[in-house]
Specification:
Two copies of one chain form a homodimer. Chain A is built from nine helices and twelve strands. By secondary structure, chain A is α/β, with parallel strands linked by helices. The first copy, chain A, has two domains: 129 residues, 2-Layer Sandwich (Nucleotidyltransferase, domain 5); 169 residues, ATPase, nucleotide binding domain (Nucleotidyltransferase, domain 5, 2-Layer Sandwich). In chain A, a hairpin with a 2-residue loop joins β9 and β10. In chain A, α6 packs across α7 and α7 packs across α8.
């Protein structure tokens, strides 16, 4: 029996890792989510991945592994390394070489936001676009840039670090050590910063006390916003204003057709994007404004990462 | 006798227009500068260009015109239009069609900063670079972006408007109508704004009174800086700080190997770039800093524009 080939797509995140097998360039035929356990050595994650993959091929003897694509925080397409990922204790990992040893097939890597952008281009809402920017909104803010139909890597593979684009000099201290980065305002942790600032000004506000915790509950904020809570509205208005400033900077340089939003916090959708669009248009030169669309991703949460990672191999 | 083909490169500027003929892909065999006269209809400029070109071919009967490349303010590669150029009263001009009627050969256009970037890539300091950004410093600030060896145009041909990237929200009013654009701080007119602000704070300062005029004399500022004038130093320090903030924004998105500076005000060179580099590095995430070079253009003033415009045809 001739075996059919399949590609493994892996999306490594700060908390969870999802992986799946992609056939016929359009379909995830199996996918699973496992905890990343970023405080343990990466071999722990790779051991668990390896046994999950082995089990899959035991159950699917008609398939064989053709290659592996990986999206990971600080994954570098050129060096094949995961380089000092934030929130993971791994330091610098030569993931290509590690995976080659274990699986003996072609392996490619890029960062998680680039993988999401590849997913949107090959399987998602950006299929017919050549110039667009995917923004991943989660704990942090990442971005993947397509220009003239190609993903931009930059000189050293680190293009697209939009989360660390300064939007306010001398502004908030960011996890990266600099001040005023977009991510320090627009991300789950950025919104947490905003709530803390609001709480400093209004320490007895019950809604702010309720919503401020180790992790911010986006669903709770969304519900409060929808029921007309003015504080929730102010939080999203402030976040949207800052996001729009970052979008204006990127749009002025790159003139994309659309920004596409993906990731946990993008569920807030128009609640934030409406303010972001106003703020972006205010900060664009006249010829550009109203020409750039802000769109939610059409891909199911988790799938864009797998599909995008796999497309590193499938569309090589 | 078989004629040799030559390409006409035209660099239209706010004040002057330079044009020249490029042979063998490396040589400008004739060039001339004529006033643009931007307050007159564009036909005035094109009439003078046409008679200059006719005269050249009369004197060089062994050559024939193979094509025309144009760099112009707000020149759009996709539409073939010059679209509402600032400081020129032309509105929207279909320059490709105008030139076709007059010359009957292939014509291509891009904006002046993109032409300078093409000049650096094919004939200048960026010959061996794939990821770099050329910044033209003159009355305004323009930029042309190469990524992975290709010039970026964006969805609508307006990528690279770095001069209008907001670096300070609610900051200085820019000629474009927005506030806080990089150009309103870093350009001849931006430096004039800075001198006016300094003069408001210190209205009797003789150096500031001397240097503040309808046009700023860059040479006078350079000389004062070199002789240790503290006000000149402050002006360049402030300008460099703002430039570095803009460079940090662009570098975070695009991760280029180098920024290359071209145009009248780039003669200030290290006097401004030293401060710009410090400010850029302060605003970059750690992995990037010290990796990006700031370089003066190696091409003679005026030549990069002609060569870059011609390369639209020669390297098509």
């Amino acid at each position: 029996m001739k075996k059919r080939s399949t590609v493994l797509g892996i999306d490594i995140g700060g908390t969870n890792t999802v992986y799946g097998f992609v056939n016929n360039e359009t379909e995830v035929c199996f996918s699973e989510q496992i905890p990343t356990h970023g405080s343990l050595p990466i071999s722990d994650l790779l051991d668990r991945l390896q046994s999950g993959v082995a089990k899959f091929f035991d159950q699917n003897p008609h398939l064989e592994l053709d290659g592996i694509g990986i999206g990971a925080p600080n994954g570098n397409y050129y060096t094949g390394m995961i380089q000092n990922p934030p929130n993971l204790s791994w330091g610098n990992v030569n993931i290509i070489s590690e995976m080659n040893k274990r699986f003996g097939c072609k392996v490619k890597i890029t960062n998680d936001a680039n993988a999401a952008a590849l997913g949107e281009k090959h399987y998602g809402i950006a299929k017919n676009m050549n110039d667009f920017i995917v923004i991943t909104l989660g704990t942090g803010l990442g971005s993947g840039i397509f220009s003239s139909g190609r993903l931009l890597y930059g000189h050293d593979g680190f293009a697209g670090e939009m989360g660390h684009m300064p939007i306010k000099y001398g502004g908030r201290l960011c996890n990266c050590g600099n001040r005023g980065c977009l991510e320090s305002y627009v991300s789950a942790s950025g919104i947490r910063n905003t709530i803390r600032e609001f709480l400093n000004q209004d320490p007895k506000n019950e809604f702010l006390i309720d919503v401020y915790g180790e992790k911010i509950d986006g669903g709770m904020l969304d519900d409060a916003f929808d029921s007309g809570n003015q504080i929730a509205r102010k939080i999203y208005e402030y976040t949207g204003e800052k996001l729009g400033q970052g979008l204006a900077q990127a749009a002025t340089l790159l003139s994309p057709e659309a920004f596409i939003f993906y990731g946990g916090f993008s569920n807030a959708g128009d609640r934030i994007l409406k303010f972001a669009k106003e703020s972006m248009n205010q900060n664009l030169i006249n010829d550009h404004s109203e020409r750039i669309r802000l769109l939610p991703s059409g891909l199911p949460q988790g799938k864009a990462g797998i599909l995008g990672a796999a497309s590193l191999i499938l569309f090589d």
